[in-house]
Amino acid sequence: MIVPKSRFLISRVDAGSSSAFLVHTDVVNWVLLQEGSGITLIDGGYPGQASDVVESIRHIGGRPEDIQGALLTHAHVDHLGGLVSLSEQYGFDVYMDPVEVTHARREYLQQAGPLDILPIAYRPRVLRWLAAVTPLGVLSRKGIDGAKPFGTRLDLPGGPTPVAAHGHTDGHSAYLVADDTVLVSGDALVSGHPISAIAGPQCISDAFQHDVETARRTVESFTRLDATVLFPGHGPRYDGSVADAARRALDVS
Ligand SMILES: [Zn+2]
């Protein structure tokens, strides 16, 4: 069992009139963008982490009622789960890459199932991870019926810009935030994972990738970005050239 030291760790990057916050937990991360009294949420943790998302918003001086919209990197349960109940309760819309919409509505599921995990399930790290995420709702199949495609311009607090990052799922998206200095990479590029022995920038385990080749091409495309901070979907914040982090990930994974 993974015993969290505290449930989450928050770090921030300021850019002009807005701030971007990485909320890091032992199992998955989400991001808050704050501009004036408005908040944009990027991803929402597991279903069992919805109350932690609310607590993280209060931690930065906001209220869940301030969420003007949410963005999704991809529709896996560890990123979408908390948004299911929060979007219903607080009435905000959840936007994503147009390709990911039907996935978020659960018209199909591109997520590792027991058969994908089976070949690695004997590993102690995988067993500990399963023990940690099962009570958080890893088996939930609930989607977001009202999932919406983002348009060409996102009019949300913090001014996020989508960056196509397909492969981990067909419609996975990353986002540039904080005046394009921070890449919110979702699972396209991570800096750690409970089942990985590697520390630092890496591609997530092939067992979790829907399309490994496309996912690697996405990481190659990140080597052309100028961002200087990485807010990954898993693992701690990474300070340094995101292009270098992408090159390192391609080397080690
Ligand atoms: Zn994930």
TrEMBL record:
Name this protein carries in UniProt: MBL fold metallo-hydrolase
Organism: Gordonia hankookensis
Domain Metallo-beta-lactamase: 27-234
UniProt cross-references to SMART domains, sorted A to Z: Lactamase_B
Pfam family for this entry, one: Lactamase_B
Gene3D superfamilies: Ribonuclease Z/Hydroxyacylglutathione hydrolase-like (3.60.15.10)
